[in-house]
Amino acid sequence: MGHPRPPDHAGPAEFDGEIENPAFTGSPRLDVERVHEDGPVVVVTGEGRGVSVEHGPFRFAFNDLFTFRDGLIARVDSYVVPLGAAGS
To answer: Taking the model in full, what pTM does it have?
Structure first.
């Protein structure tokens, strides 16, 4: 089951540091399947692939909810659901 990340990141550098960190090799590959906008909220869904240093390749589904204020991202809620192995 996917869980939202706790809102403990204050800016773009902190968010980027969560995406690219020492537990993973390189950046994840994201395939966006759907984008929905409703006022200041944009929802992006899709699937991704990455490589964990400890466990190797993996796949996941994601759902990111961006809330905008004054043209900037004010909040991000990210849900990630593990899928089968990257080769399956």
So the answer is: 0.72
